[in-house]
Amino acid sequence: MKITTEPQPESKEPRWALQPTLDELGQNARLLIRLRWVAGFGILIGTIFTSAVLGLDLRVTPLLVIGLSVLAYNTALFFLSHNDMPREGFERIAWGQILLDWLAMIALVHFTGGITSPALIYFVLHAALSGMILLPWQVRSLTVLAILIVGGLAWLERAGWLPHVTIDELDLHNSLHKNTTYIAAVMFFFGSTVFVLSELVTRIVQRLRQREEHIRQLLEARSTFVRVATHELRAPLAAGLSLMKNIEQGYAGELTEQQMALITRVIHRLEGLRTLIDDLLTLARSREATIAHAPLEPDSVRAMLVKIIERETPNADHKRITLHNDLSDDPGVVMAGPIGLQIILGNLLNNAIKYTPEGGDVWITYRVSRPTHTVEVTIADSGIGIPAADMPNIFNEFFRARNVKETQVTGTGIGLSTVKTLVDRYRGVLTLESEEGQGTTVTVSLPLASKQPPREPL
Amino acid sequence: MANKILIIDDDPDVVLALRMPLESAGYVVSDAHSQESGLKAVDQIKPDLIILDVMMDTHTAGFQLAQKLHGPAAKVEHKAIPILMLTAVHQTTPLRFSPDEDYLPVDGFIEKPVDPKKLIAEIKRLLHR
Hints:
The structure holds 2 protein chains of 2 kinds.
Chain A: H1 22-53, H2 60-80, H3 87-111, H4 121-133, H5 136-159, H6 180-248, H7 257-291, E1 297-300, H8 301-318, E2 322-325, E3 333-336, H9 340-354, E4 361-369, E5 374-381, H10 402-406, H11 415-425, E6 429-435, E7 439-447
Parallel strand pairs in A: 2-4
Antiparallel strand pairs in A: 1-3, 4-5, 5-7, 6-7
Helix pairs in contact in A: 1-2, 1-3, 2-3, 3-4, 4-5, 4-6, 5-6, 6-7, 7-11, 8-9, 9-11
Chain B: E1 4-8, H1 12-24, E2 28-32, H2 35-45, E3 49-53, H3 61-70, H4 76-79, E4 83-87, E5 108-111, H5 116-127
Parallel strand pairs in B: 1-2, 1-3, 3-4, 4-5
């Protein structure tokens, strides 16, 4: 049998026309609506100012009607767009608002002097905006349409089929709109500017989208890798440890004292490896959460402590450690990532139990600090403490204090650095007080959430 | 009569590690190594308890099988067999499973690596409910 691999086609360049993300569509819709409030009021105020204060001979009524129409359809758009709208909704609104803007602009241009109107420059602005929110082919079509519309308007006014509005102060001889050379020159510069500008904006936007897509793929690949690697590392370890425990518990026959001592050591080392793998996964996930800016949600401190204390109680009982806690008052909620609070408090309590010798005590308390509007959770233990010389490095990744390494406690030195990363992210403060042999007190201070965050207004 | 226990796990070493304490505690142990063969074995052997691994050929094979055996569409005789789910989820990892009628219809969990004493205790609890 013979197998030949197929020659692979050259890897394709990333798709040129990347769709905007839903997030981007929403942001753009909001941006345009905000800009349009300014535009609408700008037309109203500008018209009144120029005619009343500067004394220019403007067609006030049609211009005010245009300004009011802009405000009217912007109000409609404001109420039509929701953050949770489907993609098609945003796309329809994107098209709709650009077409409405163009109608308003062409009317504005017509009533302020056609080809001689300074308002023509607004089309340039709009070419840039459409480059931001539409796909390249849509932008090109619209640009051609813009040139045709403005050219058509100039031509209709020149031929006299559409009355030309003259602002005397701008066109002294009232003949500029009939000057073919002038029209041609304006159309050339107008057309090329609109075209080049919209093309530039489209390209920049596409490039940004490509990068964003690239980053998204990288992050996805990385988290897939971490997940797969962890599972692949864990599975054989778990199988091996399960077999070892059978030997340790005598299911494979009696062991000599020496064999038992060796098996216990092996199990101890493998448990250490297992903790390392689990911690690495937690670290990778919390980094991911930090990088990906997973949205922060309100999380109850008390509920989380109840859950974690319940989880750690067997570990504490095993070492006859007493967990002192009073969780009667509810300190409220803090803003944290989906698993953040669990990692922070879980790690701290786990450490306290881990580094406290048999028969010791661990205290869990919290209090609300009114002036700073924070909740302070304190986990104190009567454990081995941290040597003063090691305190500066205590939050560093993979760092383990000297006295910890001397004990038989397994650990990886990842826990506290992960806790610090997360506390930093939630704008909290981590305080650690310790004296070797006297125990350790860790206080996490996290800002309290002020109820539900309001929905982001458009 | 000794209770019959069916282990559904694709890792032969894990199966062995489960088998040793169970057999020495007097249970009759059989095993299957995939979702399909597991389902067949349930009907053939009619076990008193099933030990089911979460991740087999796919990451969710165990969940799917649990749904087939205990989900809303499951047979009455299948629903009567308690399922002990084997997970590799460590306590510090964010995902915590808890028995849930609708989502994950199993009766208990045991963590990998398996502690034989805990395993026997959990099996006794489930069989003598």
